[in-house]
Amino acid sequence: MKAFLILEDGTVFTGSSIGSTRDVISEIVFNTSMTGYLEVLTDPSYAGQAVVMTYPLIGNYGITPDMESKKPWPDGYIVRELSRIPSNFRSEGTIQDFLLKHDIPGISGIDTRALTKILREKGTMNGMITTNENFNLDEIIPKLKLYTTGNVVEKVTCDEKSILKGNGKKVALLDFGAKNNIAKSLNQRGCEVTIYPAHTTAEEILNSNPDGIMLSNGPGDPKECTSIIKEIKKLYDSNVPIFAICLGHQLMALATGADTHKMKYGHRGGNHPVKDLKTGRVYISSQNHGYVVDTSTLDEKIAKPAFVNVNDGTNEGLEYIGKNIFTVQFHPEACPGPQDSSYLFDRFIDMMGGEK
């Protein structure tokens, strides 16, 4: 069946339908990872977005037990070529069936590199995936321009508190759309991880007497999370060690008076170089974000830049003055991506007083 990707600038790509055949309007973003498509599909940070994979062949090892959350979150999936016969002893099915099962529309057979060039040159834009061959551009484009992702954190956060048992430090993990491997990375280091819904009050978390607090990744514009930001300010005012990743990093910056802004096309992939400003060492990192902290708005008495993106100079991490708090924009837990920066979890445990 034919499918069409219509961008808000009027560009139309024609390909084949994969997955659900329903129409969907979403923000179109691209990911440059060469592997790890299942982890991309199940990353809650993609809620409200349709993902373009720049690597030309997707699906060749099928669907494996490597999900980063309970379900896939993107609104749509866009690939150059879909491998319909996976070859992998761990495979449990095809991407086509996976998308159908979860009612996610997709399109294959389009020039994803040409599409990515458009998004890089013009910036991230909204689009529609449709199987309707009689679409009317004059009707669709105004609808595309009106679309916003909204407050998607509420959509992806867990419904209730849960605990990963451990014998070491007790960590409270605020779930703004956390990937499974964040809790797993802490748990593997002996931590007992209590996962809290995004709108849990600071009082409830602090009353549990955690050794440390983890602020997770998540989707959308950080400024939409107004009530969460107020609670994070209370956590900042406590003396509990805090480590934050991605959206958590942005929310902590907003809670302490700094500003964020939307990037032209964001960072999404497993090959982004970040420089540790203290040591000068460069790490290759996994990233997935469309917003960034504006370092010109930082109060130098509150925080200072700790990491910078080597490609474009944007902020990749902050160290908070006089506090046991550090935050990073990239993903030290990766999945998919390199493990270069996983040492940051060890640093967090050291901040909490080391292993018991």
Q: Would you give an account of this structure?
A:
- Helices cover 23% and strands 32% of the residues.
- With 356 residues, the protein is an alpha/beta fold.
- It folds into 2 domains: 2-146, Glucose Oxidase, domain 1 (3-Layer(bba) Sandwich); 153-351, 3-Layer(aba) Sandwich (Rossmann fold), CATH 3.40.50.880.
- The strands form 3 sheets. Strands 10-12-11-13-14-19-18-17-15-16 form a 10-stranded mixed beta sheet, with helices on both faces.
- It starts with a strand and ends in a 5-residue tail after the last helix.
SSE layout and pairings?
Blueprint lengths: L1 E6 L4 E8 L4 E8 L5 H5 L7 E5 L3 E2 L17 E3 L2 E2 L12 H7 L3 E4 L3 H11 L2 E6 L6 H10 L6 H4 L5 E3 L5 E6 L4 H8 L4 E6 L4 H6 L4 E4 L10 H12 L4 E4 L1 H9 L3 E18 L5 E13 L8 E7 L5 E6 L4 E4 L14 H9 L5
Parallel strand pairs: 3-4, 4-6, 5-7, 6-8, 11-12, 11-13, 13-14, 14-19
Antiparallel strand pairs: 1-2, 1-9, 2-8, 3-9, 10-12, 15-16, 15-17, 17-18, 18-19
Helix pairs in contact: 8-9
Which architecture of the largest domain does the CATH hierarchy give at level 2? 3-Layer(aba) Sandwich
* Overall pLDDT score: 95
Strand content: 25-35%
Classify the secondary structure makeup into a structural class.
Answer: alpha/beta
Q: Count every helix, treating DSSP H or I runs of 4 or more residues as helices.
A: 10
Query: Helix coverage percent of residues?
Result: 10-25%
Order of helices and strands: EEEHEEEEHEHEHHEEHEHEHEHEEEEEH
Q: Alpha-carbon distance between the termini?
A: 59 Å
CATH class of the largest domain: Alpha Beta
**CATH homologous superfamily identity of the largest domain:** Class I glutamine amidotransferase (GATase) domain
